């Protein structure tokens, strides 16, 4: 496992379909090279730049830990997914692990900026995955999109099964942002019924996905996603036209001034805006999903009766996902949503991100963990493999 450093891991296919993983301080050598199926990798993922903000915060005393680690998780079909993890020392199994799922034009890095250090400092184990073809995760060898919704849900199911269930750990809480919320809604619809024993042979099959301790939606797209677009046009037709144009041309993240109106509050510091825009610009070399497949899946059916507890949060100043959409999703789960004033769409990076984190942590503290039969602790080795020990 490699420490989270100032440069992302670089993945470069070479002869024999091998790739070398190296950070800015480690030169690739035969000992750091890993064999993967030739069909798994078609080209190297983008090289992302991760400013050393975690170290700066630790030095100032704002955060006590810089223990974020980068690793790779191999999917069933042989693709490597970038995963960032942080494990607080002596973390109790009474607190759920958090699995963060990003939205469009983002990757695991967006959670490492603020949310992961904040929650780790409060005793939560954190995992953030870059979905296939996003961030430094491998791209599929065919197609114009990373995959249909069920491919992404199966990837999440495989990660949860192999990293949690197989080790006797309680199921995590998935925290999803924006389009990641659509992926999560699809996952919940395919979740296994309580009491069902899942194993690797079935865990990635729709209807057999591992149970979760909870689901949290941050500025998530709603189950229908149709009326929201029409409301956008009626409320601000010029901004809506710009957004549609940028979406079609994939140009929304090409400049700080194009991304700002849709994702961030007006008072975000310019330096942060530029930093995030630069990372967003290279985070999605391939579309996250096949939109034709998404259209066929919409509206997503209501969650099953055995769905996990849900937390739903939106921002009053969100120009992409309006409060009506947040209420639509909340009605699906029969819960009251949290609407925060002054919060824009990019919840985990926006100026008032900590207000969202505090609201989420308040809800997390009330959860009963799925799969936790007694009090205990988790321990993790240097390779990121965790096991549970019970009191």
From TrEMBL:
Residues 98-350 form the AB hydrolase-1 domain. Gene3D superfamilies: alpha/beta hydrolase. GO terms for molecular function: carboxylic ester hydrolase activity; lysophosphatidic acid acyltransferase activity. GO terms for biological process: lipid homeostasis; phosphatidic acid biosynthetic process. It holds the Pfam family Abhydrolase_6. InterPro entries: AB_hydrolase_1, AB_hydrolase_fold. SUPFAM superfamilies: alpha/beta-Hydrolases. This is AB hydrolase-1 domain-containing protein. It comes from Chlamydomonas leiostraca.
């Amino acid at each position: 496992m490699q420490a989270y450093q100032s440069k992302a891991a670089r993945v470069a296919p070479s002869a024999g379909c091998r790739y070398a993983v190296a950070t800015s301080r480690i030169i690739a050598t035969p000992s750091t090279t890993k064999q993967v199926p030739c069909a798994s990798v078609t080209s190297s993922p983008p090289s992302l730049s991760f400013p050393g903000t975690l170290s700066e915060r630790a030095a100032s005393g704002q955060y006590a830990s810089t223990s974020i680690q980068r690793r790779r998780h191999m999917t069933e079909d042989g693709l490597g997914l970038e995963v960032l993890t942080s494990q607080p020392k002596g973390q109790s199994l009474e607190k759920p692990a958090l699995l963060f799922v990003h939205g469009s034009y983002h990757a695991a890095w967006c959670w490492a900026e603020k949310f992961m250090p904040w929650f780790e400092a409060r005793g939560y184990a954190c995992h953030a995955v870059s979905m296939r073809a996003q961030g430094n995760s491998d791209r599929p060898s065919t197609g114009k999109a990373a995959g249909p919704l069920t491919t992404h849900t199966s990837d999440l199911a495989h990660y949860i099964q192999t990293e949690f269930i197989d080790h006797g750990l309680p199921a995590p809480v998935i925290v999803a942002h924006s389009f990641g919320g659509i992926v999560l809604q699809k996952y919940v619809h395919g979740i296994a019924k309580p009491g069902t024993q899942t194993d690797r042979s079935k865990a990635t099959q729709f209807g057999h996905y591992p149970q979760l301790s909870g689901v949290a939606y941050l500025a998530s797209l709603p189950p229908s996603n149709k009326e929201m677009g029409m409301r956008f046009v009626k409320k601000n037709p010029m901004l809506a036209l710009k957004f549609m144009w940028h979406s079609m041309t994939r140009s929304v993240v090409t400049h700080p001034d194009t991304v700002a109106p849709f994702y961030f509050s007006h008072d975000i510091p310019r330096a942060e805006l530029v930093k995030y825009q630069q990372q967003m610009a290279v985070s999605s070399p391939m579309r996250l999903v096949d939109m034709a497949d998404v259209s066929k899946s919409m509206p997503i059916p209501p969650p099953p009766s055995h769905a996990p507890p849900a937390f739903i949060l939106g921002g009053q100043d969100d120009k992409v996902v309006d409060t009506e959409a947040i209420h639509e999703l909340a009605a699906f789960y029969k819960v009251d949503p949290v609407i925060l004033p002054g919060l824009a769409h990019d919840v985990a990076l926006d100026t008032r991100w900590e207000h969202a984190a505090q609201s989420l942590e308040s809800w997390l503290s009330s959860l009963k963990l799925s799969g936790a039969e007694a009090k205990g602790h988790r321990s993790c080795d240097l390779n990121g493999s965790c096991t549970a020990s019970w009191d």
